[in-house]
Amino acid sequence: MKTKDKSESSWNLSPAPESTDHIQLKKRYEHFINGKFVKPVKGKYFATINPATEVKLAEVAEGTIEDVNKAVNAARSAYENVWSVMPALERAKYIYRIARMIQERAKEFAIIESLDGGKPIRESRDIDIPLAANHFFYHAGWADKLEYAFPNKNPQPLGVVGQIIPWNFPLLMASWKIAPALATGNTVILKPAETTPLTALKLAELIQDSGLPDGVVNIITGAGETGAAIVNHPEINKIAFTGSTQVGKIINKTVAGTQKKVTLELGGKAANIIFEDAAIDQAVEGIVNGIYFNQGHVCCAGSRLFVQESIFETVVKKLKHRLESLIVGDPLDKNTDVGAINSKEQLKTINDYIEIGKQEGALMYQSSCTLPSKGNWCKPTLFLNVSQSHTIAQEEIFGPVLAIQTFRTIEEVISKANNTPYGLSAGVWTDKGSKIFNLTHQLQAGVIWANTYNKFDPASPFGGYKESGLGREGGLHGLAAYLNLK
Ligand code: ADP
C-alpha cells in the first residue's frame, strides 16, 4: 500500500468555517458624532463589500466637510469641557473598560474583520483583535502616569486629533491610534478606510455602550476626500496618518506651516535576510509568515528576500514546497492561510506588478492552488532572477509577492537592503548574535526582527526611516507624539 507523505496530505483538510449566525450588521451605518449615530449632511452613502464573495455587507455614510465640521465641534467641546479636565485616573477607567469590552466581543469583531477585509479568521482572531485590546490596556496604564513618563516636562494634551487609517488592520489601527490619544487627554475624529469601515463602526457602538463621554471619540466614514477634509480642517491640532507614501506626502505638504502636528506611518519594502548559519526551516516559516499570511497586506511585509548564496537552492526548494501547502480561500475558514485581496483595485495593482516582474525578466513561480471563482484572489507568488533595479524589488506591491535575491557578504547585503526609498522594517535570520547586532546597527529600518517576523507590542515604538514615515507610534515615543512637552 502506498502511504501518503505527511506533508502531501496536510493540505487536504476538511472545511472549518466560522459561523456568522450571531453577527448582526445593520443595513446602513451613519457617522458617529457626539455619542450618536447621525445621518450624513449631504445624505450620501456607499457600499462596503465582502472581498471574498463580492456580496454587499452594508452601506456607510459618505463624510463631507459639513460632517467633519460637526465632528470637530463635538470633539472640541468634549475636549474643553470634559476630557481634558477629567482626573486622569477616571480617563484610565474608560480606556480600560473599552479594552475589556473588546475582549468580551472579540469573536464578533474577528468575524466582521474577516468579512469586511478578507483576512483569514486565524489572523483576525489571534492577532488583530487581541492586539487591539492590548493597545487599550497598555495605554490605560499610562493615563495617570504621564508625569512619571515625562518627568519635569509638564505633559499637556494637544487638543483635537484627526486620525486616518488604512484597510489592512482596521480595528487594530483604530485602537493603535485612539488609545494613546485618549490616554494623553486628547479627543478624536477617526476615519477608517473606505473598504473596511465596519469594525470601526462596531467600535463606535462599543464606545457608546462603554459610557465614554459624548464627543470624545467621533468616527466619520468616507474615502480620500473625507480624509482630506479632516487634514485641512483648521481646528484640528494633530493628524495621525497610516497609509500610502503617496498620500502621506500630500498630507505632509498640507500641514506644513500650520500649527498642526503630524505623524505618518507609510509604505515599506522590507528586506528579510537569511544567512547560511540560520535555522533554515524556522526561517522559511518566518519568511512565509512575513509575506504570504495576510496576503502581503502589511506595510512591514518582508517583500524582499536576500538569501546567502550557499543556501540558495535549499531555501528556494523549501519555499516552493511551502507555497504549495498554503491554503488559499475562504477567510472565515480556520485553516486558511491566505485570504482575499482587499479590493478589486488592489488586486489590479498586484497583478500589474506581477506582469512588470515577468516583463523585466524575473522568473515567476506561483502556487498551483485553485482560486475560488468569485472574489478577489491572488496566488502566493515568488520571483527568482531578480536584480536591484527591477521594479518588483523597488516598489511596494502590497500583495503576496516575494522578490528573491542572493548575496555573498554582510557588506553586500546591507548595501542591497538599504538601497530603497523605504525603511520601515527588516528581518535577520542567523545563529550568530554578533551578526544580528552588526546588522541592526547598519540596516536603515525602524523595526528589525531577529529570527522572527511580524511581532508587535504596544510598548514598542513603531515607525519608519526615509519615505516610510515620520515619528513613532507605540511605547513612550508614541505617547510623546500626542503631548506638548516642555
Ligand atoms: P492604501 O493604498 O493603503 O489604500 P491610502 O493612502 O490610499 O492607502 O489610504 C489610506 C487612508 O487614507 C484611507 O483611509 C484613505 O481613505 C485615506 N486617504 C486617501 N487619500 C487621502 C487624502 N488625499 N487625504 C487624506 N486621506 C486620504
Q: How would you characterize this protein structure?
A:
There is one protein chain. The protein is α/β, with parallel strands linked by helices. The protein has 2 domains: 28-266 and 465-484, Aldehyde Dehydrogenase, Chain A, domain 1 (3-Layer(aba) Sandwich), CATH 3.40.605; 271-450, 3-Layer(aba) Sandwich (Aldehyde Dehydrogenase, Chain A, domain 2). The protein has 17 helices and 20 strands. The protein has helices at residues 6-9, 65-83, 88-104, 106-117, 121-142, 146-149, 170-183, 198-210, 224-232, 245-255, 280-291, 312-325, 344-359, 391-394, 410-418, 433-442, 475-480; strands spanning 28-29, 31-33, 36-38, 45-49, 56-61, 156-157, 160-164, 187-191, 217-219, 238-242, 261-265, 271-274, 304-308, 363-366, 381-384, 401-407, 425-429, 447-450, 469-470, 483-484. The strands form 5 sheets. The chain has a 7-stranded mixed β-sheet with strand order 14-15-16-13-12-17-18, with helices on both faces. Strand 2 (31-33) and strand 3 form a beta hairpin. Helix 4 packs across helix 5, helix 5 (121-142) runs parallel beside helix 7 (170-183) and helix 11 (280-291) packs across helix 12 (312-325). The chain is globular and about 65 Å long. The model is unreliable at 1-9 (pLDDT under 50). The site of adenosine-5'-diphosphate has 17 residues, from helix 9 and helix 10. Residues 164-167, 191, 193-194, 223-224, 227-228, 231, 243-244, 247, 250-251 line the site of adenosine-5'-diphosphate.
